[in-house]
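Students often ask why we bother encoding 3D structure as a string. The short answer is that it lets us treat folding as translation between two languages. Here is a chain of 315 residues written in the first language.
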Amino acid sequence: MTTTVVFGEALVDEFPTGQVVGGAPFNVARHLAAFMAPPLMITRIGDDRNGLAVRAEFERFVMVETGLQVDPMEETGRVVVERNAPGQPEGHHFTILPRQAYDFIDPHAAVASLAVLGGQDAGTLYFGTLAQREERSRQALAALFEATSARRFLDLNLRPGQADEAVVTRSLLAADIVKVNEAELQALFQWYVQIGPDDAPLATEEVHAACRTLIERFALDALIVTLGHRGSVYFGADGSLLANRDNPAPPFVIDTVGAGDAFSAIFLLGRLRGWPLPLTLARANEFAGAICAVAGAVPADINFYDKWAARWQGA
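And here it is in the second language, the structure alphabet:
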């Protein structure tokens, strides 16, 4: 079995009630590890208390630390979360701090960490946009692109004020498969298809045509659009379209934090395990829904994964 390489931020979300280790790439890596498909996670933390919390998660999920860099100067990434913030549609305000350790991933160390693969090439390289906001980490990602022939999975993960159009354009040009949510798709339409937020709503056929324009412009193998409780749609470069609307809703929703990361993790797991595409999308949708029924992006109890592994193995 090939290995997935996950590149990007590992950080700590700071709530008034305490801290939670997160970061979209790290969430994906932990899910994969919990399903016995441990990835090579390439990130950078500080030599501080928050860095110890990140390392504890590496240990809890039995992930190799070969790609874990420790910065002697910069702090471990932090996001300050203000609950019940006035004027925020979801009630929370997120402050993503600048100049964090994950902004300075060392290119040479990143490439050197690939040696843990033992000569076996990576199957997929997962990346996003947040860890590309500084030149140093952009250089590290570019070096990984040069060093491996892995298929490139871009989980766009746009955060306000953290990635400009130039970073997004370079990422799309580098990617093979791109996953976006509806809000991110609208941003891509505005940038690349000249469809503004104040334009008349598009018919379904027009949305599909715009998605195919994106695929052609950036020479993508596929574009995946997640639709929350409404499932997902997969657009293939060959003109195929696979809509998965059979998405069982969780019995209750605590929060939607990390649902997109859960979807990406199971999609990547399906590629590793050789699942048929329709089955992969169905399982990714269902697992993402299940994450909405637990607090946070990753379940506190690692035994949460057992029932899913048993169900999928039995099927």
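Translate back mentally: Residues 3-314 form a domain with the UDP-N-acetylmuramoyl-L-alanine:D-glutamate ligase fold (CATH 3.40.1190.20). Keep this in mind for the problem set.
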